């Protein structure tokens, strides 16, 4: 028996799955929206999450990434397409398994059983004392082998957590450094605010202004202004891009 959080906005599918999973002995809670699911995971941590990707408020992949910022709970994704690229993206974003719609309740129950067996074996092996484990952060935003990133005169060392501009060390707060390192790791790409929330803040409940406050602090420390950007460029309505000044 496990506690299952079922995230599905279609009421017909939801009640059918609740019925089947309950019949397999699981205790099922449900959510119909992404934010609701994230709140539910923090308030009443389940043993496993079944996540439908087509939700009304958030893209399922973003829900998955935000979820990974706050929890290591196993996630089985329900996807409408059996598309290799999509599935790879989901597994990279932290899904443990997936089912392709339409699937039967029995098939889902079997997948859940397999994922639960696998993850309990894994956490028993990784944490024989039974401590830690569940809430250890997964470092999705930081490359596996951190290296020094050079963009123009800006040098960011994720391992040492230092940043230098033209040889002078920048005095950054923890979050300012995380934001700068993330943007530097994605130099020349426009990064959306949503991705920044998911990958740097790793939580869904952050005001838009929070990013702006940190951005303007970074700009000040980099010696530039939003009206005359050098490194940090805002692409209106899309996101933020860090580039080497010309
Ligand atoms: Ca849906």
CATH class group of the largest domain: Alpha Beta
Termini separation? 60 Å
Name the CATH architecture of the largest domain: 3-Layer(aba) Sandwich
Bound molecules: calcium ion
Low-pLDDT parts are: 126-145
> Per DSSP, what share of the residues sits in E-state strands of 2 or more residues?
15-25%
Question: What name is given to the CATH topology of the largest domain?
Answer: Rossmann fold
Radius of gyration: 21 Å
List the helices and strands and how they pair.
Blueprint: E1 3-7, H1 11-23, E2 27-31, H2 34-43, E3 48-52, H3 60-70, E4 75-79, H4 84-92, E5 97-100, H5 105-126, E6 149-151, E7 154-157, E8 162-165, E9 168-169, H6 174-185, E10 190-191, H7 193-201, H8 208-221, E11 232-235, E12 239-242
Parallel strand pairs: 1-2, 1-3, 3-4, 4-5
Antiparallel strand pairs: 6-7, 7-8, 8-9, 10-12, 11-12
The site of calcium ion (CA) has 5 residues, from loops.
Offer a quick outline of the entry.
With 246 residues, the protein is an alpha/beta fold.
Could you explain how this protein is built, in words?
- α1 crosses α5 (105-126), α2 packs parallel to α3 and α6 (174-185) packs across α7 (193-201).
- This protein has 8 helices and 12 strands.
- The relative contact order is 0.10.
- Helix content is 41%, strand content 19%.
- It is elongated, with a radius of gyration of 21 Å.
- The strands form 3 sheets. A 5-stranded parallel beta sheet has the order 2-1-3-4-5, with helices on both faces. It has a 4-stranded antiparallel beta sheet with strand order 6-7-8-9, covered by helices on one side.
- The N and C termini lie far apart (60 Å).
- Bound molecules: calcium ion (CA).
- The site of calcium ion has 5 residues, from loops.
């Amino acid at each position: 028996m496990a506690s299952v959080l079922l995230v599905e906005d279609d009421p017909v599918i939801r009640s059918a799955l609740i019925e089947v999973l309950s019949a397999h002995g699981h205790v099922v809670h449900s959510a119909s929206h992404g934010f609701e699911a994230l709140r539910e995971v923090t308030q009443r941590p389940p043993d496993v999450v079944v996540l439908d990707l087509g939700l009304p408020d958030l893209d399922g992949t973003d829900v998955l990434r935000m979820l990974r910022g706050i929890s290591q709970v196993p996630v089985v994704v329900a996807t409408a397409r059996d598309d290799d690229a999509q599935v790879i993206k989901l597994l990279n974003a932290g899904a443990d398994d997936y089912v392709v719609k339409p699937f039967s309740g029995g098939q889902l129950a079997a997948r859940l059983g397999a994922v639960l067996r696998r993850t309990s074996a894994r956490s028993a092996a990784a944490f024989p004392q039974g401590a830690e484990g569940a809430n250890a952060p997964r470092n999705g935003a930081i490359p596996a082998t951190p290296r020094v990133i050079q963009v123009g005169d800006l040098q960011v060392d994720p391992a040492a957590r230092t940043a230098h501009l033209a040889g002078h060390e920048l005095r950054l707060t923890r979050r300012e450094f995380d934001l700068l390192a993330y943007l530097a790791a994605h130099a020349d790409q426009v990064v959306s605010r949503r991705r920044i929330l998911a990958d740097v803040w790793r939580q869904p409940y952050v005001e838009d202004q929070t990013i702006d406050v940190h951005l303007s602090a970074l700009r000040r420390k980099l010696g530039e202004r939003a009206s005359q950007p050098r490194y940090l460029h805002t692409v209106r309505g899309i996101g933020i891009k860090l580039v080497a000044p010309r």
